[in-house]
Specification:
The chain has helices at residues 5-9, 15-18, 56-68, 83-95, 124-145, 157-174, 186-197, 231-235; strands at 27-33, 76-79, 100-102, 179-184, 212-218, 221-229. It is an alpha/beta fold. The chain has a single domain (16-110, 119-245), classed as Rossmann fold. A six-stranded mixed sheet has the order 3-2-4-1-5-6, with helices on both faces. Strand 2, helix 4 and strand 3 form a beta-alpha-beta unit. Helix 3 packs parallel to helix 4 (83-95). The longest helix has 22 residues, at 124-145. It is globular.
């Protein structure tokens, strides 16, 4: 017996529809933290953190990321503006024969320039170690407090969440039914997932360098598929990092 339009409309959605996959018009978004950018004395730049390039370890991580996603069909590769994000995206984009598209909204939470506390004329060795110490201090605040509200001038939580969500949604709107990679930063990635999961904390998981977190988006619906995937680093023998690699 044929079903009436009324009875068909009352049927529950199929599993395929609920999963928001690309075949159903959803967008699969791979949010990736940049690779390690804490160079040793031989590579460190005597400026703030945002001026640093990827370290030797970071360059290995970026290549491991590209290798790990070799079988994934991507429609586009987007990156936050800073060098450490663009350099991480480059091997992946090259492997897919795509250009790296810079998206300003993917930038890290605004905290002001992160200068290490060193005396004038400090050696590169001292500067590199002081920079690592300063970043550890910021990480401790984020993990301990769940955000950066205690840091004077930090980007407010509501603004951070609105900005990163708008950036992701804007990219999603351009790529229905496709998969895209977005290279961003630990704070922004945390804030995005916190927003869609309805969490109070802006920072709730310690995102590893080049870790992959995946979400599917279709209209107002989102589905978290993975958080902090580092299988590509393990496959390349880069996790846990050796002590002398930091």
């Amino acid at each position: 017996m044929e079903s009436s339009p009324e009875s068909s409309a009352s049927l529950p959605p199929s599993l395929e529809d609920v999963m928001l996959g690309p075949k159903q018009g959803g967008t699969e978004v791979y949010l990736i933290r940049h690779a390690d950018a804490l160079p040793d004395a031989a590579e460190v730049v005597l400026g703030h953190y945002d001026e640093q390039s990827l370290s030797e370890l970071g360059r290995k991580q970026a290549q491991a990321l590209a290798d790990g996603l070799r079988d994934l069909k991507l429609a586009a590769v987007y990156s936050a503006p800073l060098g450490r994000a663009r350099q991480t995206a480059a091997p992946l984009a090259e492997a897919k024969e795509l250009a790296v598209q810079v998206e300003p909204g993917l930038r890290e939470v605004e905290l002001g320039p992160l200068h290490p506390s060193v005396a004038e004329g400090a050696t590169p060795e001292a500067y590199a170690e002081a920079l690592k110490t300063r970043l550890r201090e910021i990480a401790a605040i984020a993990i301990g407090e769940g955000g950066w509200g205690s840091i004077p001038g930090a980007e407010p939580s509501a603004a951070l969440r609105a900005r990163i969500t708008a950036a992701v949604n804007g990219i999603v709107a351009r790529h229905p039914g496709e998969a895209v990679a977005l290279v961003s930063h630990a704070g922004s990635i945390n804030a995005y997932f916190a927003a869609i999961l309805g969490l109070q904390r802006d920072y709730f998981f310690p995102t590893a360098n080049t870790a992959i977190s995946v979400v599917r988006v279709k209209g107002a619906n989102t589905l978290v598929m993975a958080l902090n995937d580092i299988a590509h680093l393990r496959a390349a023998g880069l996790f846990p990092p050796k002590q002398d690699d930091r």
